[in-house]
Design goal:
Layout: H1 5-8, H2 23-41, H3 53-80, H4 89-94, H5 101-126, H6 130-160, H7 164-187, H8 200-218, H9 230-249, H10 261-264, H11 272-281
Helix pairs in contact: 2-3, 3-6, 5-6, 5-7, 7-8, 7-9
Length: 288
């Protein structure tokens, strides 16, 4: 990853959740996770647009890992003695399926999984049950692999076509705006005197700071967010949304089909050795 776990972790100063007293709160938190893991399973369809075999293999493995995370949270609910509840609309917004491979890698993988990993780290720090922490830590390490994949794909994209920086930046800023609104909603509905929840404002500030650092290291953000005025951020969001929905509605996109893995696999490095072997057996020069 472009950031270490230490850079992403938040110090809760020893504050812990109580499984009995905080059952409803923990059930609500886990329910948001559960929804996200199910959306993660659905990423399998991106295999159709994977640019190479290594990406396709990664996505196939990720589907299995997301299924494992669902099982982990099923066990969490049994440990908690609670049932899942309805997911919040902000979580649905942040989990909305992207319309392009580029958005998927930058928003769902690099940023979205980054949010998920930080919430995992928060649970690891605030749950007082060694067995459950160990299970969630295993899932968190898999999430780190998902983040790294998204970061690598996004860096390649920006190096290949720098125009994607502006196209994607506004969508990232929209996600951060949604998180700030989410903070206010939570603050009105939970006990902000709770040892853990009382640190929510500082924790969400940490999430935003980590996201800013990731965007900077990706080369997507060229100056600190604090130096961007409200109108500049609003303009960036509007431009990204206009490009996103304009592209979707453009007449020529109705007929344009992006290459799929089945269109490009014969030239993929993954098959280079067997393609060369075939050429040798048939007496065809490798350059052909």
């Amino acid at each position: 990853m472009l950031l270490t776990r230490e850079e992403m972790a938040f110090d809760f100063k020893g504050a812990k959740f109580d499984r009995e007293k905080d059952r409803d709160l923990l059930a609500w938190i886990a329910s948001q996770f559960l929804y996200g893991e199910f959306t993660g399973i659905q990423i399998g369809h991106w295999i159709l647009q994977a640019p190479d075999m290594d990406s396709a293999k990664f996505l196939a493995r990720q589907c299995i890992e997301e299924l494992q995370h669902v099982d982990a949270f099923k066990e969490f609910f049994r440990w908690l003695g609670a049932r899942p509840v309805k997911v919040h609309r902000v979580v649905k917004l942040l989990s909305t399926e992207s319309s392009t491979w580029e958005e998927h890698c930058a928003l769902e993988m690099a940023q979205g999984e980054g949010f998920v990993a930080m919430i995992f780290y928060a649970l690891l720090a605030t749950l007082d049950d060694e067995k459950m922490v160990k299970k969630l830590d295993f899932a968190a390490r898999q999430e780190e692999g998902h983040i790294e994949f998204g970061e690598e794909q996004t860096k390649k994209l920006l190096e290949r076509d720098p125009r994607w920086r502006k196209r994607l930046l506004g969508l990232h800023l929209l996600s951060l705006w949604a998180i700030k609104r989410f903070e206010k909603w939570i603050a009105r509905r939970v006990d902000m005197n709770h040892p853990v929840m009382s640190q929510l404002p500082q924790y969400l500030d940490k999430i935003i700071a980590v996201t800013e650092l990731r965007l900077t290291r990706l080369g997507m953000l060229h100056k600190p967010l604090r130096e961007m005025g409200g109108f500049e951020k609003f303009g960036a969001i509007c431009r990204s949304l206009a490009w996103k929905f304009g592209r979707k509605l453009a007449f020529w996109n109705w007929f344009r089909r992006k290459p799929r893995l089945t269109d490009v696999y014969m030239n993929d490095p993954y098959l280079a050795d067997v393609m060369s072997l075939k050429a040798v057996k048939e007496g065809i020069p490798l350059a052909a």
